[in-house]
Amino acid sequence: AEETNLGNGVYLSRGYQKHEPPKENMSVYVSTVRPKVLKVDKKQETITIDLFNFLTWEDLRIKTNFTEADKVNDGIKFIFEVAELPLWTPYYYIPNLSEWKSAYHPLNINIVQIVPYGPFLTKNSTFVQKVENGRCTIFCGFDHSLFPMDEQRCPFRFASMSRNLRLLLYD
Asked: Do residues 68 and 97 lie in contact, with contact meaning Cβ atoms separated by under 8 Å?
C-alpha cells in the first residue's frame, strides 16, 4: 500500500489504519470554547447548551510539509462532507447526554485541521484538531429539597470507553 494523499501536502503513512489509535495510551485534549446555556428545563431536569469543541491529539502517522504560511495560519484545514473521516478520531461520550445535534445537521460535515503544534504549544510534531459545533441537552437530576433556596449543579464531563485513551480538558 502507498501513502494516501489528503491534499495540500498532507499524507497518511503507508499502512495507515483509521480504526487504530496512533499509539498506545493516547491523550486527547478537549477544549470547549464559549459554551452557552440556552435553556434550563426544571421539569425535565435538563439543560441545553451550545458547544464549540476542539479535540486535539498527536498522530505521527500523518506526514506533512508545513510551509511557513501554514505555521502562521494555524495549519492546514480540511472540510470533509462525509459521515466517516479518513483519519482516526477519538470516540468519546458525555455520560449524562440526553440529545446531541450537530450545527451542520442534516449535512455530514467534519472540520479537521492538521497543525504543527499541540496543546501547551508543543512543537515539531503533527497534531490533528477536530472541530465540533453543536447543541447538547444533558440530564442534571436537580435537587429541589431546599426550594426556594436551592442551588443547582450539573456535571458535564467527557468520557471514553477505551482503556488506552485519556481525555484531558484544557482551556
From this structure: no
Grid cell, residue 124, equals: 515539531
Contacts of 73 (CB under 8 A, 6+ apart): none
Torsion (CA) 167, 162, 3, 11 in degrees, nearest 10:
-10
Give pTM, 2 decimals.
0.81
8-49 per-position pLDDT tens digit? 889 999 999 988 888 888 888 888 887 889 999 988 989 999
Select from 77, 71, 88, 84 the least CA-distant residue to 8: 77
* Phi and psi at residue 67, to the nearest 5°: -85, 170
Per DSSP, the three-state class of 121 is helix
Residue type, 96: N
Question: Are the beta carbons of 51 and 35 closer than 8 angstroms?
Answer: yes
Q: Please provide residue 48's backbone torsions phi and psi, each rounded to the nearest 5 degrees.
A: -115, 130
Q: Which long-range contacts (CB under 8 A, 24 or more apart) does 39-42 make?
A: 42/142
Residue 165, beta-bridge partner list: 26
Residue with cell 472540520: 111
Q: What is the mean pLDDT of residues 114-118?
A: 80
**Which residue is it, cell 491523550?**
27
